[in-house]
Amino acid sequence: MFNWAKQQLANVAGTAEPIYGPDAIQTITKQAETTPYTEISKDGIKWKTIEWTSVETQTFYFIADGGHIGMAQVIYSNVAGVRITCQFNTKIIYPDGKTPHLWSTTPLENYGFDDEKLSFFADDIAVTLSEDGSEITIKSVVNADSLVDIKITKLAPAFVAGNDGTTTYGIDPEAPNGWMRHAFWPRNKVSGTIVTQAGAVDFTGKGLFIHALQGMKPHHAAAKWNFINFQSPTYSAVMMDFTTPPSYGETNVNVGGIVKDNEIIMAGSPQSVVHTETKEDEEVHWPVPSALKLLWTGKTKDGKDVTVSWEGPLGERLDRIDVMAEVPAVLKSIIGGVAGTRPYIYQWSIRITVKIQIGEEIRDETGTLFYESTFIS
């Protein structure tokens, strides 16, 4: 009962959770031991809009043929079931290495959903799923610095790891403290533009779409993250990796998948990302990676072993984001004032060549890696 009371205080006030230990988390890794992944229909990306503290996002990553990296994101935030806000974020990273990144974040007014909760709208913005579930269009004029008109067309099946893509937190799985869920459109064709004050940026190329739900305070769910998005002419690879805080035993949870053209080669959990070299951020003292080792392993539907790997330096960092300085005030209130919580995101984009082995066949594939390393607490 005492732990329950401390949990309720943590949920409302943002304080640290009790130490439950690793037995108090039901990871997607366990599900994936028997069901590596499940292909999902359009219902698998419905907005959940749960009624207590949570952050739900639809995030679209663009890797343009012309070299630009882009992102568009809708954030639906609920604080303690009493305050809901929505935000739209966009980012453009320019390939010349000289033009400053464009970042815009705008609060949304009069938000809503269609009857099925498959499409989102607010004043001057619509994120619309097509009737057949194969395309999403993003049209936004909410911010004059980034007018968005982009279409994402699904090329390969969508999936979640395990049966439902969900990791639950808490001693009682039937009444969890919270949960984490990710659903992926791993390989997509992107067309359209983001118009800035300097002109239009053409984002024709490849893209990744992720629908994510953190049904609890973000710093209670994870202490650190790794996110990998690799896109090449033939293959796509995605990996989402996080480690829980000590309250849940510093448990690592990792999901990912490999896609070739219009089919999933393998997907599920666990995959692996290792920081092989680090350098301390002298200002905030996080051990920022400078080199990585990436590994995806699994089996095809017909039982062939799959291994996809890369190891090497990350090169020059693209960006360092002080989350508390950039995120909307409502997200700051969700994170709260917990001692040791200082979220920073570090970003890179480099050309890499991955080694792919499917059964006896081995090949190399060159493409663009977009990587984020996030430290929270």
TrEMBL record:
GO biological process assignments: response to oxidative stress
Domain Svf1-like C-terminal positions: 216-377
The Svf1-like N-terminal domain, residue ranges: 55-214
SUPFAM superfamilies recorded: AttH-like
Classification lineage: Eukaryota, Fungi, Dikarya, Ascomycota, Pezizomycotina
Localization annotation: Cytoplasm
Source organism: Trichoglossum hirsutum
Main location: cytoplasm
Stated family: Belongs to the SVF1 family.
Alphabetically ordered keywords of this record: Cytoplasm
Keyword Zinc: no
Name used for this protein in its record: Survival factor 1
Residue stretches spanning the membrane: none
Gene Ontology, cellular component aspect: cytoplasm
PANTHER family associated with the record: CERAMIDE-BINDING PROTEIN SVF1-RELATED (PTHR47107:SF1), SVF1-LIKE PROTEIN YDR222W-RELATED (PTHR47107)
